[in-house]
Design a protein that fits this description.
The chain has 479 residues and is an alpha/beta fold. Helix content is 44%, strand content 13%. The chain has helices spanning 3-11, 20-28, 45-51, 65-77, 92-100, 118-126, 139-142, 154-157, 174-183, 213-223, 235-247, 261-272, 306-313, 333-342, 348-359, 366-369, 375-387, 390-415, 420-427, 447-450, 459-473; strands at 33-36, 57-61, 83-85, 107-110, 129-134, 165-169, 190-193, 201-207, 228-231, 252-255, 278-281, 296-299, 323-329. The strands form 2 sheets. It has a 7-stranded parallel beta sheet with strand order 3-4-2-5-6-1-7, with helices on both faces. Helix 18 (390-415) packs antiparallel against helix 19. The longest helix is centred in the C-terminal third of the chain and has 26 residues, at 390-415.
Length: 479
């Protein structure tokens, strides 16, 4: 069956976007494949379409619950009934049903953490897998070493006679691509890389004093329409921004990892359906949010690395229309971001405590219960204590800290350079070949030109002018 026929019949499209067909052909030829496709360019089609042309289950390993749910719902809207995500969103009855019928699903979504379960691994080994997909594969390199080490163990969880692997990303550098290939144990990997440049995104850095940052952000939101996202580092700040915007009658909500899952899903749905214009969020919000008309992304802090920044600004302008990506920077932001980046890295005393608990026969995970370390710190420490000698763990943590500092420095250098777009492209081993109007604040940028269709009108002034016009047309006569 021709690819174009399946594309039309199953998805309603007449033609492929750039890169999709080549990636799909590689998969159907049985090749391990890596695809770097820009955000919003239809990466999910690269595994969904082959799923209808191969016999068996497509296993998708995905980093976030919200991302899984979004993709499951997308497939259901297309009429696919044989799709499920094994995660905490399922009720006991739903989870039991999935386990009982697991071999009947065409698409099955799991998190990397689920793969650490022996029961899950055994089930997967029993399945007739047609394709293994690692979505947001840059997480292997970006998060795997220090945030979610389960990413580094994906290959070990796969059956010996596994089907092809498809690794997908929008922000992987060549170094990240090598990590992906190594840790997924991909054979003769076919690589398809397409430009990360998005000409309709316009980058802006605004230097401010600490006391004026919040005010400047409010002024920008009041002046230009959304939809938009305000990214901030703390949950408290996300809530504060939302409260301030709501007081100005702007439809908004906050979003962070401290909220109940159902509340997060509800807010995401409201934003996607147009009931909310703004989301004030930590970086917990974004993956899986396929909203085409986001006009603004505002950061009130410096993200930890280029990949994170590109992921977040990449959520804007998926409809191809102009979008503004503004980051407000004050003198202490660099130091503050570095401090946050180091928070979950284990310290020497925590390494000693982990070793003491283990040697004395106590469960080391009690260190989390007792408040001696965060869950993330424990996951990092447990992984490296199982893979290195205790005396080498501190050296590994120090290496991770140096890497984080270097990654942050790279982003700061780009944001303060002569052309932000050029710096971002260079980071991904690309060159800027075309001059773009209102490219970035370093090259010269006019917000009003970029968002001219989205400048808010002064409602109160309009009301006065309307009353004045009526009075001129129908003057009131006194007795």
């Amino acid at each position: 069956m021709e690819l174009e026929h399946v594309l039309k019949e199953k998805f309603g499209y007449d033609s492929f976007r750039e890169g999709q067909k080549e990636v799909i052909e590689s998969i159907l030829n049985g090749q391990d494949t890596f695809a770097l496709l820009p955000t919003g360019k239809g990466k999910s089609l690269c595994y969904q379409l082959p799923g209808y042309m191969m016999n068996g289950t497509v296993l998708i390993i995905s980093p976030l619950l919200s991302l899984m749910q979004d993709q499951v719902e997308q497939l259901k809207k297309l009429g696919e009934k044989r799709v499920a995500a094994l995660n905490s969103f399922l009720s006991k009855e739903e989870k039991r049903f999935v386990w009982q019928h697991i071999s009947e699903f065409r698409f099955l979504f799991l998190s990397p953490e689920m793969l650490s379960s022996t029961i899950v691994r055994e089930k997967i080994h029993e399945l007739n897998l047609s394709l293994i997909v690692v979505d947001e594969a840059h997480c292997i390199s970006q998060w795997g070493f220090d945030f979610r080490p389960e990413y580094l163990q994906i290959a070990d969880a796969m059956p010996e006679n596994r089907p092809p692997i498809l690794a997908l990303s929008a922000t992987a550098t060549k170094a990240m691509t090598e990590d992906i290939s190594t840790y997924l144990k991909m054979n003769d990997m076919q690589t398809f890389r397409y430009s990360v440049d998005r000409a309709n995104l316009h980058y802006e850095v605004v230097e401010v004093e600490s006391f004026e940052k919040q005010q400047k952000i409010m002024e920008q939101i009041e002046q230009f329409e959304g939809p938009g996202i305000v990214y901030t580092q703390s949950r408290k700040k996300a809530e504060k921004y939302a409260e301030q915007l709501a007081s100005k009658n702007i439809r908004c909500a906050f979003y962070h990892a401290g909220m109940e899952q159902e509340d997060r899903r509800f807010i995401q749905h409201q934003f996607l359906s147009g009931q909310l214009d703004w989301i004030c969020a930590t970086n917990a919000f974004g993956m899986g949010v396929h909203k085409e008309n986001i006009r603004q992304i505002i950061h009130d802090y410096i993200p930890q690395n280029v990949a994170s920044y590109m992921q977040e600004v990449g959520r804007a302008g998926r409809d191809g229309q102009a979008a503004l990506c503004t980051i407000y920077v004050e003198a202490t932001d660099w130091t503050r971001t570095l401090e946050v980046a180091m928070l979950d890295l284990p310290q020497q005393w925590q390494i000693d405590e982990f070793l003491r608990y283990t040697q004395s026969g106590m469960r080391p995970d009690l260190l989390v219960t007792e408040g001696k370390m965060s869950e993330t710190t424990y996951r990092v420490l447990a992984y490296w204590m199982n893979h290195l000698l205790p005396e080498d763990v501190l050296m590994k943590v120090q290496q991770l800290a140096m890497t984080k500092k270097q990654q942050l420095s790279e982003l700061v250098h780009i944001l303060s350079g002569s052309c932000i777009r050029e710096g971002l492209l260079r980071y991904f081993d690309e060159e800027k070949n075309v001059d773009i109007a209102n490219c970035c604040s370093s090259c010269g940028l006019n917000r009003h030109e970029i968002l001219k269709k989205h400048i808010k009108r002064n409602r109160s002034k309009e009301s006065v002018e309307w009353r004045e016009r009526i009075q001129r047309l129908l003057p009131m006569h006194s007795n």
